[in-house]
Design a protein that fits this description.
The complex is a heterodimer of chains A (97) and B (156). Chain A has 97 residues and is of the alpha+beta class. Chain A is built from 2 helices and 6 strands. Chain B has one domain: Cytidine Deaminase, domain 2 (3-Layer(aba) Sandwich), CATH 3.40.140.10. The chains are: A alpha+beta (97), B alpha/beta (156). At the A-B interface, strand 5 and strand 6 of A face strand 4, helix 2, strand 5, helix 3 and strand 6 of B.
């Protein structure tokens, strides 16, 4: 299956935008990915081995948080997308009059 | 540096005017070469922060997945994001910084005062890790309609 690498992480994956990886679950596939590209690990996982809160992982068009998380099964032909969150906004402590 | 086509520059500013007094948000598509990001298209995105749209924005990751897929089909990359600050300066806020995770990409902010787009600034998110990330002001180079180039330095 294919894992799509977001722009910020490609420098740690030989500048590739998509990588073919094997694995029976999302966790296994990501583990194989970070085994192959060790520098990716600290960008995806915290020191205690959990996926960082701002890292969203999709299998095809489904968020793994609403499936079986890292135990979500995957198969040949699936696409895993790693998508860091994008959010923000004004911290309003004054308003332009 | 952020290079952006004239049509794209004005499109993101108009988006901020259209959603005023709420924050708009969207995605910048283009190419990267070293420290330069070139924008050839902008894609409007929905703001899921319906609870506080006047001072918060969030793009649904599922929408990003779709935008990323369509960009790949066009051989383009996500090179940054834009949003607006209604009646507030075009500078990044602590919230903007805390929620910025696309290191190497540009974050473009437009101040929209009483419904009119004013300043547009761009900030490159740099650093080796999430813990060491930082915003740096970057120049916006706009390719004008007459093909001339106009540069905008970040300002208050």
């Amino acid at each position: 299956m294919k894992i799509l690498i977001p722009t910020p992480l490609r420098q740690y994956a030989d500048k590739q935008a998509a990588i073919d990886i094997n694995g029976a679950t999302v966790g296994e596939a990501l583990g194989n990915l970070t085994s192959r590209y060790g520098d990716l690990r600290k960008h995806l996982y915290t020191d205690d081995g959990k996926l960082r809160a701002f890292v969203n992982v999709y299998v095809n068009d489904e968020d793994i948080r609403y499936l079986s998380k890292e135990q979500t099964p995957v198969k040949q032909g699936d696409t895993i997308a790693i998508v860091p969150s994008i959010a923000g906004g004004v911290f309003v402590d004054c308003v332009i009059e | 540096m952020l290079k952006i086509a004239h049509s794209c520059y004005h499109a993101l500013r108009r988006h901020g005017e259209a959603t005023y007094p709420h924050e708009c948000c969207g995605v910048l598509l283009g190419t990267m070469a070293g420290d330069e990001r070139t924008v050839v298209d902008v894609v409007r995105a929905g703001n899921t922060r319906l609870d506080s749209p006047h001072n918060r924005y969030h793009i649904d990751p599922k929408e990003l997945v779709r935008i990323q897929r369509q960009a790949r089909e066009r051989e383009l990359d996500i090179v940054g994001f834009y949003h607006s600050h209604p009646d507030h300066p075009a500078r990044w806020s602590p919230t903007d910084f805390a929620e910025a995770h696309w290191i190497g990409c540009s974050y473009v902010i437009t101040s929209v005062e009483k419904g009119t787009a004013c300043l547009t600034n761009s900030f490159a998110l740099l650093g080796e890790t999430e813990e060491a990330k930082r915003f740096e002001d970057e120049t916006i180079e706009v390719e004008a309609e007459d093909r001339a180039v106009r540069c905008y330095q970040p300002s208050e």
